[in-house]
Design brief:
By secondary structure, the protein is α/β, with parallel strands linked by helices. It folds into two domains: about 130 residues, serine acetyltransferase, domain 1; about 120 residues, 3 Solenoid (UDP N-Acetylglucosamine Acyltransferase, domain 1), CATH 2.160.10.10. About 45% of the residues lie in helices and about 15% in strands. It has ten helices and 15 strands. The strands form three sheets. The protein has a six-stranded mixed β-sheet with strand order 3-6-9-12-14-15. A hairpin with a 4-residue loop joins strand 14 and strand 15. Helix 1 packs antiparallel against helix 2 and helix 6 runs antiparallel to helix 8. The longest helix is centred in the N-terminal third of the chain and has 17 residues. The protein is globular and about 50 Å long.
Amino acid sequence: MAEIQTKLSSIDPVWARVCHEAHEAIRVEPLLGGLIHSSLLHHSSMERALAYRFSLKLASGEMSEQILREIADEAYAEDPELGASARADLMAVYDRDPACHRYLQPILFFKGYQAVQAYRVGHSLWQQGRTDLAYFVQMRVSEVFGVDIHPAAKIGKGIMIDHAHSIVIGETAVVGDNVSMLHSVTLGGTGKEDGDRHPKIGNGVLIGAGAKVLGNIHIGHCTRIAAGSVVLSDVPPCKTVAGVPARIVGEAGCDQPAVSMNHRFAAQGE
């Protein structure tokens, strides 16, 4: 076993760490042995494990676990970026969420991480022209996780959605790499117009709880959006915005606000 673990660590250190943590978790809490074996240790790769979790969580009377497993396995096999993004997202959650102490936690327990990985499968289906199946995935992700991401939306790597309740991301939204957002965030439109109508979020942006970013606007890289803000116009890079409607209240405060997760800011004049 030690020799296998060493070899795995050199090939896929993220998955190797997940497996190591899984064995330790079973030692500490044997009652979770069945769940951890079926979800993690039974699988030869992280992609296979994620496909299993996808099928287990989204299965219903309308679509069986077996069919969903085949869909996800095929998606991961055909698009290596899905696995690379899943690893980047996992490391982002571990690095930024103080409640995350092990790599296995997001895969097993965090609905934000699981919802984003399910969206990624749905987005892959959308890109293949399998739009109705992609819509089915969107529907089930919304029903199961309370996260509604249109499968046509474009989302980068290293995404962390903390708590992830009532997240809405519209059809033409674009989210860059290394973005962090909290619960009740909306990236939406401003009316019933068709076409390109949703926000474009730059790299490294931090979006606070309950913030609404509306319309085809651009949020510059490494910007902070304060909790509860309603953003209706473009925001330059490296700024902090707050209020309803939001206005610039200062600089971002650091080079990587999405990584630091610092939501506090001094009002102008302080």
